[in-house]
Design a protein that fits this description.
single chain, mainly beta, Immunoglobulin-like, eight-stranded mixed β-sheet, 8 helices, 69 strands, disordered N terminus
Length: about 1050
């Protein structure tokens, strides 16, 4: 049966030196679990091959379903064939010669474990079932149990069976001996390893009722044992019973190591459920001499074990996997990430107590389910290790982490990560095998099994080349005045960039027979933006260039040089900073079939060349920068956009200051307007945003020469000063690019801040005048209608903040209410703005009068009338008590008006507090009252003036600074109550009329006399047509 190599595309992985873009992959029948176990087959002089187990493969064995199989995949470039190894072509065994012996091979998982040694290949079926029954007694049998079996082939044709757990013993016999030495469920071959001397170590973790068993036997004993269903194997050692805890699963993983340094290798046995925390037992000469326990319950410590000499100190080091270890992450939550423990053997039989722990980074990724020593991948003198995480990776389909060996152990972080090449879950990394060089390039390779995708991947290690490179310049300093090169028709200042490379391979192989084709990407003035670069290549007039350099890997140095030139000084600004040249060395695309090497060493170089300056023999300019600054002393006002002007004077008393600039750090709320230069040199300033504020930078010269002085004025707008203190400070400083004494001392400009306020209170009353008696008005004592009690009056007080500051204000309004114990002005409806918090001295509308549904102003206006409009009938009620009518002269005698205010009457009062009243805001209070007419009728013809008062006072401001004084003011509004007099009804006397007419005639006569005196009546008349004719006849 043959299989084909499938071409796939892979994403490039950031690597140590395993080539990840084109790994070779072998695929098996779908659903066969091809890749569940793997090993490397290395017969003498026949090259390397991969042995792959497929434990769920359907084979041609008669009567067997999913018996499993093992494939041999030889390594050859261009070869894509895998063939099945004919271990066992027979079906189930049913031996009835004496008693009944049966072996069941369906679902036996043959190929779950494969191991090789020289020309020997071992494959195991841990779930192969066995049963024994006495002839004629079907009730006296052993039962059908998974004893397991392994098969050994030495020539890829014939095989030998190894099934030591089979016993011709029935259940009754087991019961009589209390089930001691009961190996019926041992699942032999669950794990296996073969020593360098050909000694098989096989694990049977469910033997002895899940306590676990391990066995050792020479491979030659398996070959030499007599045939039969139950065979005797010389030199077979079986671990004794009752040496571990209950359900410990001893033999879950096994390997060899050397920790006692006697004549025999030591056995490392994984026991993942030992005392619930797991353990690793180390046996020497069939005697357990060390137990290493896990630290967490159910972490499956001992699931995988591996041995390698990481630091190459001559002592084996131990690695133990615990793939379901729970790690406490941020917030105290436990996450199943898995761990690998690294025990470095510092002396014979001793492990360091300060073991190293490697943790996975994918939850439920089962980091540590497989561990494989890789040998020295990059030939750095330390052995490297691969750790599998079959459910980790970006897609959850598995990944493999490569850890570099170091003197202290393994690198704390993986040096390379192999991601699952497929997009579907494939258990990538479930099995690993490494340490062998398939392509004979001197570097060991890695095999990764992905049984979920029925695929095995071979990752080849790329050769490692140590690179030493350098960059130099001729001349070493660039003089703009020395122009030795020609560019077109102009002479330019130039220099040579010289790149020297030396390469040496760390191992033998094909890489030594070819030249390394390297590409050097050169960037001139690389620290500058491309449009600001000062140097270009003379043959390309660009600042970048790629040069091909062929370098042998035998350590010989190869140099290449290119010529660059400096632009004219008028074309660039920066003369002080060095010109940085960057060189990035990469490997060109190799020839087909050649595995590209990995370059180690410094492949990115940076060197700098300086421009010669006019600064003395040392080429170092030392300026002496001075700055003086002041402002116009006009304080800043909170709440307005202040215009401020800062006068400054800059001076350089030392050597030239290159790229000299004045820095002004404006506080929050300050903005740059313009700069006013007071010197011949024009100064340029511009603002930049930095952390929410403005930084103004003014160019002072490049260079700012010795003795240069620049006076100027900076105009700013400053606002948003509400959070400021008594002043704001503006720091200013001159900076240059010089290496020494590059800045002036910091200068601070301090500006004072003040608070200003302006408030206006206005009061009015509508109507301002009421004339009594009211027409058609009649008192109704029991009515709730305000108009039945008198005239409705509205008082309005409005407080306006003219700014600019925001203030806290207290407003007090007072209105006359009682006079001489009687109600004169009854308040019944109050309206205030939402921003006012008011409290009253006494309640309003205690009589529960109805509030008006329309604006009272219109109603009040309807009661206003001219005195002349009062009808004569209105006086009919003004009679004496005996009913006799009196004359008006007797009733309407003159009375002095009375002023009612809070000094001579009882006032209604309200106090309102207004917080954070901003500029332009208004606060309005409106009070509807009833002029209690019945109280006035008791005092006929008595004029009254009712005066209400309003008063405000600023109590505070919401700023860190306070004003020197708080303002206050008051106002008032008067309501005049008038009475109609009988004089308004008298006829005008006749003599008044005659006297008025005579006065008018007298004034007219005076006017005519004045006009006559001025000559108005003696004017010449304009000539007519008749006058013209008469003049012509004469």
């Amino acid at each position: 049966m043959s299989l084909h190599l499938l071409p796939l595309l892979f994403l490039h992985t950031c690597a140590l030196n395993l080539e990840t873009q084109n790994p070779k992959n072998f695929s098996g029948p779908k659903g066969s679990y091809f890749g569940f176990s793997i090993d490397i087959y290395e017969p003498k002089d026949k090259g390397l091959s991969i042995v792959v187990g497929a434990p769920k493969l359907n084979t041609s064995q008669p009567g067997v379903t999913r018996g499993g199989g093992v494939f041999l995949c030889p390594w050859q470039l261009g070869s894509n064939d895998c063939s099945i190894i004919p271990f066992d072509k027979t079906g189930d065994v049913n031996d009835t010669k004496n008693n009944i012996v049966q072996v069941f091979k369906s679902d036996q998982w043959f190929g779950a474990t494969v191991r090789t040694w020289n020309t020997n290949i071992l494959a195991c079926a841990p779930l192969q079932h066995f049963t024994f029954q006495l002839r004629g007694d079907r009730f006296n049998q052993s039962g059908k149990t998974p004893t397991g079996a392994c098969y050994l082939t030495t020539d890829l044709k014939n095989s030998y069976e190894f099934a030591p757990c089979r016993e011709l013993t029935v259940e009754h016999t087991y019961a009589l001996r209390n089930y001691q030495n009961d190996k019926r469920d041992c699942e032999l071959g669950f794990s296996a390893e073969i020593s360098k001397d050909g000694m098989l170590l096989a694990g049977a973790p469910t033997g002895f009722f899940f306590d676990g068993i391990f066995m050792t036997v020479p491979l030659t004993s398996i070959q030499d044992a007599p045939t039969g269903t139950q065979r005797y194997f010389p030199k077979l050692f079986t671990s004794p019973e009752f040496t571990v805890s209950v359900d410990a699963y001893q033999g879950f993983s096994v390997t060899y190591g050397e920790f006692t340094y006697d004549d025999n290798p030591d056995l490392i046995i994984g026991v993942p459920n030992y005392l619930d925390v797991g353990a690793v037992h180390i046996y020497s000469n069939s005697r357990r001499f060390q137990v290493i326990r896990g630290t967490q319950v159910a972490a499956y410590y001992g699931y995988a074990v591996a041995v390698t000499d990481i630091d190459k100190d001559g002592f084996d080091d131990l690695l133990v996997g615990a793939p379901v270890f729970l790690e406490r992450r941020t917030g105290g939550k436990l996450k199943e990430v898995g761990q690998v423990y690294v025990y470095m053997q510092r002396a014979t039989k001793m492990f360091g107590r300060d073991y190293q722990i490697l943790s996975g980074n994918h939850v439920y990724g089962q980091f540590g389910a497989s561990i494989a020593p890789l040998g020295d991948l990059d030939q750095d003198g330390y052995n490297d290790v691969a750790v599998g995480s079959p459910f980790g990776g970006k897609s959850g389909g598995g990944c493999v982490f490569i850890y570099k060996g170091e003197k202290s152990g393994l690198s704390t972080q993986p040096s390379q990560t192999l991601e699952n090449p497929l997009s579907t879950p494939s258990k990538f990394g479930f099995t690993l095998r490494g340490g062998k060089d398939f392509d004979d390039n001197g570097y060991p390779d890695l095999i990764v099994g992905a049984f979920g995708a029925d695929t095995v991947y071979l990752y080849r290690a790329q050769p490692v080349v140590a690179l030493h490179a350098s960059v130099s310049f001729v001349p070493s300093i660039l003089n703009p005045d020395v122009k030795n090169c020609t560019l077109g028709s102009s002479r330019v200042s130039c220099f040579d960039v010289i790149i020297c490379i030396q390469a040496s391979a760390k191992a033998s192989g094909r890489i030594q027979q070819i030249l390394l084709n390297l590409l050097a990407d050169i960037q001139l003035d690389s620290q500058k933006n491309r449009i600001l670069r000062r140097t270009f290549f003379i043959d390309a007039t660009t600042p970048s260039k790629t040069v091909s350099i062929k370098v042998p890997n035998n350590g010989a140095s190869v140099c290449s040089n290119v010529t660059a030139y400096l632009k004219d000084e008028s074309e660039f600004k920066d003369k002080l900073s060095p010109i940085v040249v960057s060189v990035n060395i990469t490997l060109a695309v190799p020839p087909a079939g050649v595995l590209p090497p990995v370059i180690q060493g410094n492949t990115f170089l940076q060197e700098q060349i300086h421009i010669l300056l006019d600064c003395g023999d040392d080429n170092i300019c030392i300026p002496d920068l001075r700055l003086i600054a002041s402002w116009d002393k006009k304080p800043l006002v909170i709440g307005v956009d202040n215009l401020a002007q800062i006068e400054f004077h800059t001076r350089n008393q030392g050597e030239g200051a290159y790229e000299a600039e004045l820095y002004i750090w404006l506080p929050s709320g300050a903005h740059y307007i313009q700069v006013l230069s007071k010197a011949k040199e024009k100064i340029i300033c511009g603002p930049r945003k930095t952390n929410g504020t403005e930084l103004v930078i003014c160019e002072l010269g490049n260079p700012m020469k010795q003795g240069a002085e620049i006076p100027a004025a900076l105009q700013l707008t400053i606002s948003n000063l509400e959070e400021s203190g008594g002043n704001i400070s503006i720091p200013m400083q001159i900076k240059s690019r010089n290496s020494q004494n590059s800045s002036s001392p910091m200068v601070w400009v301090h500006m004072d801040i003040i608070v200003k306020m302006s408030l206006d209170l206005r009061g009015s009353i509508h109507p301002a005048e009421v004339i009594l008696p009211l027409p058609n008005w009649e008192l109704k004592e029991d009515s709730k209608n305000p108009s039945d009690r008198g005239e409705m009056v509205t008082q309005i007080y409005e407080l306006h903040n003219g700014g600019p500051g925001t203030v806290h204000v207290q407003l007090v309004i007072q209105s006359p209410e009682y006079y001489e114990g009687e109600l004169f002005l009854y308040p019944f409806n109050l309206m205030i703005d939402d921003n006012m918090n008011c409290s009253q001295r006494s309640p309003i509308n205690t009589l529960q009068l109805m509030k008006p549904t329309v604006a009272p102003l219109s109603k009040a206006d309807s009661h206003r009338m001219n005195r002349r409009e009062l009808r004569g009938d209105d006086y009919d009620d003004m009679r004496t008590e005996n009913g006799n009518q009196t004359t008006t002269e007797g009733i309407f005698h003159s009375k002095l008006p009375i002023l009612l205010n809070c000094a001579n009457s009882t006032c209604w009062e309200i106090t309102c507090v207004i917080k954070n009243m901003e500029k332009g805001h208004r606060a309005t209070l409106k009070l509807d009252s009833v002029l209690w007419v019945s109280s006035f009728l008791k005092r006929p013809q008595q004029k009254f003036t009712l005066r209400s008062n309003g008063y405000f006072e600023v109590t505070d401001v919401p700023y860190r600074i306070k004003p020197t004084a708080y303002i206050s003011n008051d106002t008032s509004a008067d309501l005049v109550v008038q009475w109609v007099t009988p004089d308004g009804q008298k006829e005008i006397p006749l003599w008044w009329i005659i006297l008025g007419a005579l006065g008018g005639l007298f004034i007219l006569a005076i006017f005519i006399f004045v006009m006559w005196k001025l000559g108005f009546f003696r004017r010449n008349r304009p000539p007519s047509d008749e006058d013209d004719n008469l003049t012509g006849e004469q």
